Design the sequence.
């Protein structure tokens, strides 16, 4: 990567005796859309608030566009931010909200008006300039909040769970709209969310956080398909975890229930008799034998959930159980609970969790 | 949601039966007394309509009484608002320890109800001629409170200071929830957009609080405008303010005309009514942005 | 810096409250020359007039509370349940006593209900007592109504009423056994507030010539030196007790389940 636009360097944050963020490092390239993903209390919001300037790091530094902003006050940083919800000033109209940053900067009135019109165009709310926030829907309010944050042309855009207060349908459409606007403006963006689907769909890269640390940094594809830790594997997507016993480390053989699984790689550092956790995505498992999915295990169907286009089936394998997805097909009825079943998967799809 | 009424034919009368006692009470003991004042103010000794009573208010003595009342109420309300706001803001935003908050609100609940005569006694014991502070200043510092500052507890200034004891806590009780209602996100959003603390207060927080501030001011104004007991105990019946003048009139007809008493009372309703109308009008102008 | 200003504002403001409280306490203990004593309190408490007027005012306060509850709770309930369109009017009426000074209201009473009127309440002492009670109810109306209405808002009265009706309860049962217990805390808050207002009230009692605690306070204040301070301390303690009891009642009350968002 060339010189990073946002550099978070060995940042730590403690409140009293509790450490909320421990040694956080991240380089974000110019124009990149990066997401902080993690459960609540993982420190993602604290990192964002340190970038914004609401919290001061206990140690470490934050550099934006080549300038160290670690000790700057929020109003000196020229960073835009969209909050979870209801952060529009209720006493100002939509246009006045968008104009706020320009007005406090003392821009000439004509320039402000022009910029406000541009921003209203950008968020497609041209007719709403004179409305008050309470007259808008939640999704419209968040679009105005985005326009307000972007109006003063910030160097960096921070989004603090901006979609979490909206209903599901609006959430998806606004998500796409945010991404489109971000690409159009090419603005470097940090997005905080606890929703893995949101993070996967919108980001260039994702930082999965847990316990104040970055567990893994990578593209959505990497995060989903090659989770680096057990936490990432469990937090992102649905995952079946099988406990197995190593039978032959050199050739990568593991005993699961009464069957045996062959791994792609050998198990370095393990010896026969050790237990290992193996993980499989539901979509990597087929019911019955499939070409290309050589490993098979026998079991009994314990649960069938019809989800529409997909049927989620749970198969018991002795002590263990796995969930798998099959596509709905109108021609064949779904399997029944109690049926004997065989599952198959490819050694390539088995993740060994450390 | 509505409940099915067993017999729709009787619906209207039974509905109204539920609120009839309240309206009867309100009519007999709130509305009718107020109306009788209005009617009485425009009725002459023989019954017919007259403006003589109201015109009779236009004497130097009565004009002065109203004017002193308005001044005392205005200043005690204004100072009450300012001090109460400062204390409430200190607790909500100033980073004072959390444990101060709940006792302050409880205490305000007590103090705002501690009015009337006991309040006057407390101030006499503190700032009166033999009061704690007066004696302390005289004995330990050689300062004569009255001579040095011109402060006299039994004057209008003294009245204003005394009224602060219930005005300030009343303000705290009303404004603290309003300050709590200022969302952290508003301040943070303003900061992110480059606003200084002053700009945030001027452009966002103050306009949002304005309706509550105006409402509290109107309430504090009316609150001290009608206060009789404290003033009566502090300065006695000779203090020339509107409620005491009315009190003396009711007791002994000091104005020499019963009609004038009605007019005096009407004047008090009109002034507190005006204060509240002004508040409602200002609020309707500032609250366009509310549902 | 900000904290410095906050502390200054808070401490300076607190002086307005604290100094008079210290002043009245110190003064009330200073009756005996050269040493602190409870002489002023002893003098007050041994005064038969104190006991008579205080008892009178306590009884008046209790009667006012009972009448206020019977007047306000059914009204607030009925308005919430069946006649929500009346809410603005009812609220306006309940706020009237905050705008119209008490002295004006009682002036109206004296002219309306005197011996030569259609309802000569001031003709007998019982009638005057009743009139005074009505006046106190009017003064306490803003506080009582608000407390009860807030209490009703926190419970789902429509569902409670329907549930009671479906079990065959009549209106009296619904009101006495379902609604009242559920707004008990709110009603008690209103009751204590009413008590605090009534106990030392001066204007109404003085102008209606009733032997209440307020006029007695005025009499002592005009004629004695140390006793008024002792009475002020006693009044303050009573007010404090009323407010403290509200807090305790609110805190001890079973909390409704937290609402999910």
Sequence:
């Amino acid at each position: 990567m060339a010189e990073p636009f946002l550099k978070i360097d060995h940042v730590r944050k403690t409140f009293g005796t509790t450490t909320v963020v421990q040694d956080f490092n991240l380089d974000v390239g110019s124009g990149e859309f990066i997401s902080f993903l993690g459960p609540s209390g993982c420190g993602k919001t604290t990192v964002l608030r340190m970038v914004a300037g609401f919290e001061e790091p206990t140690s470490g530094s934050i550099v934006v566009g080549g300038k160290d902003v670690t000790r700057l006050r929020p109003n000196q940083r020229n960073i835009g931010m969209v909050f979870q919800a209801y952060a529009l000033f209720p006493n100002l109209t939509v246009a006045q909200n968008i104009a706020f940053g320009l007005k406090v900067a003392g821009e000439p009135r004509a320039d402000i008006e022009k910029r406000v019109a541009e921003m209203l165009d950008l968020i497609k709310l041209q007719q709403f300039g004179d409305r008050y926030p309470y007259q808008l829907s939640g999704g419209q309010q968040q679009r105005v909040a985005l326009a307000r944050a972007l109006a003063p042309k910030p160097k960096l855009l921070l989004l603090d769970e901006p979609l979490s207060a909206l209903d599901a349908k609006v959430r998806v459409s606004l998500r796409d709209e945010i991404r489109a606007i971000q690409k159009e403006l090419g603005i470097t963006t940090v997005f905080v969310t606890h929703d893995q689907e949101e993070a996967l769909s919108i980001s260039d890269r994702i930082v999965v956080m847990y316990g104040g640390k970055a567990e893994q940094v990578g593209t959505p594809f990497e995060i989903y398909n090659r989770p680096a830790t057990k936490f990432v594997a469990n937090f992102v997507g649905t995952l079946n975890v099988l406990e197995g016993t190593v039978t032959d480390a050199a050739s990568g053989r593991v005993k699961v229930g009464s069957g045996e699984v062959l791994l792609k790689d050998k198990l370095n550092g393990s010896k026969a008799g050790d237990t290992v956790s193996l993980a499989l995505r539901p979509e990597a498992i087929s019911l019955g034998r499939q070409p290309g999915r050589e490993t098979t295990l026998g079991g009994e169907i314990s649960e069938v959930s019809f989800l529409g286009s997909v049927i989620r089936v749970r198969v018991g394998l002795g002590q263990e159980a796995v969930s798998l997805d099959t596509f709905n097909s109108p021609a064949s009825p779904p399997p029944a609970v109690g049926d004997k079943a065989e599952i198959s998967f490819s050694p390539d799809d088995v993740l060994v969790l450390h | 949601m509505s409940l099915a009424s067993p017999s729709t034919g009787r619906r209207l009368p039974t509905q109204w039966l539920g609120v009839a006692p309240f309206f009867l009470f309100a009519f007999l003991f709130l509305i009718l007394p107020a109306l009788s004042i209005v009617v009485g103010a425009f009725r002459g000794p023989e019954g017919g309509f007259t403006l003589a009573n109201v015109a009779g208010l236009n004497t130097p003595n009565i004009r002065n009484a109203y004017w002193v009342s308005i001044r005392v109420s205005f200043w005690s309300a204004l100072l009450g608002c300012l001090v109460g706001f400062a204390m409430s803001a200190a607790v909500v935003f100033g980073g004072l320890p959390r444990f101060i908050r709940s006792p302050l609100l409880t205490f305000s609940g007590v103090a705002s109800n501690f009015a009337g005569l006991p309040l006057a006694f407390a101030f006499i014991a503190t700032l009166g001629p033999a009061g704690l502070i007066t004696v302390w200043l005289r004995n330990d510092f050689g300062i004569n409170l009255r001579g040095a500052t011109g402060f006299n507890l039994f004057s209008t200034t003294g009245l204003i200071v005394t009224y602060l004891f219930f005005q300030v806590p009343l303000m705290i009780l009303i404004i603290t929830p309003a300050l709590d209602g200022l969302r952290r996100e508003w301040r943070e959003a303003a900061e992110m957009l480059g606003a200084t603390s002053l700009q945030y207060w001027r452009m966002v927080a103050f306009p949002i609080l304005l309706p509550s501030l105006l409402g509290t001011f109107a309430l504090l104004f009316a609150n001290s405008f009608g206060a009789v007991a404290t003033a009566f105990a502090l300065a006695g019946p000779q203090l020339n303010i509107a409620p005491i003048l009315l009190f003396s009139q009711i007791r002994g007809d000091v104005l020499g005309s019963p009609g004038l008493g009605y007019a005096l009372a009407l004047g008090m309703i009109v002034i507190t009514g005006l204060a509240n109308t002004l508040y409602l009008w200002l609020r309707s102008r500032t609250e366009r942005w509310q549902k | 810096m900000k904290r410095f200003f906050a502390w200054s504002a808070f401490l300076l403001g607190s002086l307005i409250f604290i100094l008079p409280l210290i002043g009245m306490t110190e003064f009330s203990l200073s009756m005996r020359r050269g040493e602190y004593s409870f002489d002023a309190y002893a003098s007050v408490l041994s005064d038969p007039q104190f006991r008579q007027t205080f008892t009178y005012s306590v009884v008046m306060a209790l009667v006012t509370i009972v009448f206020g509850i019977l007047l306000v709770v059914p009204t607030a309930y009925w308005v919430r349940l069946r006649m929500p369109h009346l809410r603005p009017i009812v609220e306006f009426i309940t706020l009237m006593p905050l705008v119209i000074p008490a002295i004006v209201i009682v002036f109206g009473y004296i002219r309306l209900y005197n011996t030569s009127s259609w309802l000569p309440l001031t003709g007998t002492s019982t009638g005057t007592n009743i009139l005074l009670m009505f006046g106190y109810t009017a003064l306490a109306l803003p506080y009582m109504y608000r407390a009860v209405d807030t209490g009703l808002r926190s419970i789902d009265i429509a569902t409670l009423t329907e549930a009671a009706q479906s079990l065959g309860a009549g209106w009296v049962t619904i009101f006495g056994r379902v609604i009242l217990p559920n707004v008990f805390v709110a009603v008690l808050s209103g009751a204590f507030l009413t008590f605090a207002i009534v106990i030392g009230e001066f204007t109404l009692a003085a102008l209606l010539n009733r032997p209440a605690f307020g006029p007695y306070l005025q009499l002592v204040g005009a004629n004695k030196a140390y006793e008024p301070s002792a009475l002020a301390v006693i009044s303050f303690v009573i007010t404090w007790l009323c407010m403290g009891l509200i807090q305790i009642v609110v805190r001890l009350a079973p909390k409704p389940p937290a609402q999910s968002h």
